[in-house]
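Example 4.3 (complexes with small molecules)
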Amino acid sequence: MNKFALLSCLLLGLLACKTEKTTSKQQPNLIMIMTDDMGYADVGFNGCTDIPTPNIDKIADQGVRFTQGYVTFPVCGPSRAGFLTGRYQDRFGFTTNPSIDPNNPISGLPVEEETMAQVLRKAGYKNAIVGKWHMGTHPNFHPLERGFDYFYGFLSGGHNYFHDELYLNDLSEVTKKWEWYRTKIIENREKVETDDYLTDELSDAAVNFINQKVDKSEHFMLYLAYNAPHTPLQATEKYLSRFPNIEDKKRKTYAAMVSAVDDGVGRVLKALQDGGINDNTIVVFLSDNGGAHNNASDNGPLRGLKGDLFEGGIRVPFAMRWPAVIRAGQTYDKAISSMDVMATIVAQNNIEISAERPLDGVDLIPYLTGESKEEPHDYLFWRKWEQNAMAIRQGMNKLVANNNQDNNAPELYNIENELNEQTNIKAENEELSNHLLEEWEKWNAQLKDRVFPTLGGDEWWID
Ligand code: CA
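Answer. The structure with calcium ion bound is encoded below.
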């Protein structure tokens, strides 16, 4: 070995040693619990009174409740694409829910993009997704091809909850629209026979994964993507019987579905305690979009619903705890984004991100430790390409054209003064409105049009 090679080896050895020491001290586990179509006001930490959520509330109690936590889109698929990449999903043309066609190789999260699991794998994480995928059903897009080591759940955007209603072996047997809600559950790449209420099955799988990682002393990321409380509204008597005082049948079933999720969250938190990994595990809780028109959810004081760029569509129940680092019992009132979760875990691991695909989120930790008092985001942006709709937020000002197919002028609201976006103050603030529109246009110029067929738009199930 020549001198140069010897020196290189020594240097590499030193670097490897330094990396291992640094990361082994700092690498937290990450559990992300995402609900589906849950209303802003449907958790105890946001004031819910008819549905107790003591376990979900623990996440906020043990860390921080975000009063202004946003997702990047008011509907499932694009919101999850933004969340899982830490980037605005329209940068890669994920503008709407994709087709569920299992033979379509472009209908999903583009393979050029890196998921959080792919990125964390570089730092030695073992990654699992339990629940709803929705990032493409073609084999190219399978979770095990996108950085995950374990998958238990379903590939499409929603699912029936009762095991005896899951009669299709796989998506190739779909003969009509929405029948993809009835495929059997998949473990890794194989279908499995289930015998329990789906929410409970998902909680079981999540706890099993955590226990396995504890046994092996491996650090991990778990994306626990419950499809509850998305329609169909289905719950078992075990959970329905907890709500004898809710008369409205839909709200009662919704409450039961949320209660089942809350039980699961309690079991996850207990597994962390039992496994001795409570302090150094980050747990994030959020919904993928606001409460929907069809599931009896409640967005409280917010205007609008799932599908809207008003607050009710994009501001969600959002909490995070990391006992080793974040002081318990905080309320954080500045606007943050679901994309910040990716940026936060990347920063904790010092992972280098490709300059071609920079993250749009920010590391939240300096804001939660009090190190920074600034706004985490100068601007937050939204776009609904299909509807020519837009929104931008700067401070407490928000310019929004919720559904702009008729080219209606955007409206300006101050959501500090008026959370329910009723008084359009654009006429008195033309300069500010023009500035916001210019910033939005600059951002919009970086985005792509839709790259795949929409959900149900291609009728792929008809031969
Ligand atoms: Ca959703």
